Amino acid sequence: MYFIPRSFCKGISPSRLSYKRVGLFFYPKQLVNKEGLKVKIQSYFEGNEEAKFIHRLHGILLFAEKEDESCDSIGALFGNSARTISNWIKRINESGDIESLRGKKQPGRPSRLSESQKQELKQVIQDAPEKHGITINVWDGKSLSAYIEKRYCIVLKTRTCQRLFHQLGFKLKRARPVVARADETKKVESKKTSRENSKRRL
After folding, report:
1. Taking 80 as the threshold, does the pLDDT of residue 162 lie above it?
2. What is the rounded CA–CA span in Å between residue 36 and residue 78?
3. What pTM was computed for the model?
4. Is 10 exposed, middle or buried (0-12, 13-18, 19+ CB in 10 A)?
């Protein structure tokens, strides 16, 4: 619930602020960048086991509190299928324990990215790597692999990440070995100077 002083709202309609007025209060009418937020939230749920558990608990709580809610309506609200919601309820009914909603631990780390994670990566790659804690000037297979492991706990090989660039519609840029070329230039200049000195001595 939000309270906005009348002095702030003077001369500004609630619709321009994306708020709905109810008495003296203004309530948000919509989210900014709704689709982008949905992708990020779903991506977070998919990459975090504890978040998945809490997500399921919210679904069960809603089903317990709202008698008019169904597996279909909760599934549509939570971004899950009706069958998935039904399975959560069955687990609770059979075990009587909310811990049954926790995911089964699988050996090793996941090796594949979900579609929502790929969409989030597509946005990340458009930023400079340093903005996301990767100390390099341009994205490459190695840096993308490091970011994916850090962000999603998913291990992908460098070559797999190079292919992922193309799948997401990007062209892979190779960093220029400026230091190496500078060293080669110094070597050439050093040899040239050495020859000139030798000729002078002769």
Report:
1. yes
2. 16
3. 0.43
4. exposed
